[in-house]
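worker-3 :: picked NAD(P)/FAD-dependent oxidoreductase
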Amino acid sequence: MVMTALKRIVIVGGGAGGLELAVKLGEKLGRKGKAHITLIDAARTHIWKPLLHQVAAGTLDSHADELEYIALARWHHFDFRLGRMTGLDRDTKQVVLAPTIDEEDGSELVPEQTIAYDALVMALGSQTNDFGTPGVAEHAIMLDTPAAAERFNKRFINSCLRAQARRKQAGEGRFTVTIIGGGATGVELSAELHMATRIMSSFGFANIHPERDLKIVIVDAAPRLLSALPERLSDAVALELRKMAVEIHANERVVDVSAAGVQMASGKFIPSDLVVWAAGIKAADFLKEIAGLESNRLNQLVVGRTLQASRDPSIFALGDCAACPLGDTGATVPPRAQSAHQQAMLLAKSIPLYLAGKPLPEFKYQDYGSLVSLGEYSTVGSLMGGIARGSLFIEGQFAKMMYWSLYKKHQVAVNGWFKTWLATWGEYIDRVSKPRIKLH
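worker-3 :: tokens ->
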């Protein structure tokens, strides 16, 4: 009897879509010894990206919601490799990973690696796009990684502690946080910061009041906040933010960020103590035409309706790093968490078919609507598809429940129902027994 080698499926990127796909394929193929699945990520732990604004504000402890890739790999029958992808050899079908360096002493933990594949899935997500704006890299924080969110939180808390330690002089201005970008990240961060300051004030921080001492500003080049979402949702969010005294500057293009503040093309200048850049996304720069693959101006890999790269059928891409056709409109699937989830679910079916030499189904994006959380103040959204003819505007407690359920759906996809139930019970215990904001 001739033994045939197991097919090798390699997934690069452990974000929501990549991790969910690794879990599905591990359970479907890895558990039964039908294929060898490897997940690659530059970090050791996973956190759901839509939670980063809460990590930045300190209303969520990132370490409490992190998932260890090594443990997940063991539970779900796939391998995990720590490393950052730097290259691709399509002729030999190998992914190249840079050496991993110990942050403590600078020593090499893991040398440069090459990992072979029969089917490769690029699920590298996206990073913030500063559009070449001067001063952004030096003076703004981009909330596209847990490390960046932690860094912002440390600066924010330190600024609040300094304000608490000194007495404000007569006529002295407020501490200003300017958020550039009026999409979901910028909007949700503004509400979380307001809530975090209110909680700190209740802890006895006499010089930290959300309206009197903190000024939150949102700047966006579009005519309104959340320009990609329905106008009614945008108007409802703007109304809620103005109730919190959040200052909104729409139709304003930022041309420079300095240590002193933010300069706009109109001539307006906003003196700023902290600046967050949350305007626009792009895929990682190294993906631009990597190994001769086709990419667009945002470095996204161009894929067909089966999510296969236009120039190599053995390579798939999903989520924010993929430019996938959206029907016959000429547009591409929007870079949203629900897109990555839907594409991961399709590839969990498609990749076994590809390895078996069978035809693949085409991806059809279903827009289930949008939800925007304003912390404990409000949640608004629109539900679409089968729930209503057109769209159904929702807000209040029902919208909050729907927003909460999105994260739980991701947890179920990764951990299953029982472990998710246990984790949810633990979250409740932590919430009633510990402070609701991280001050360290």
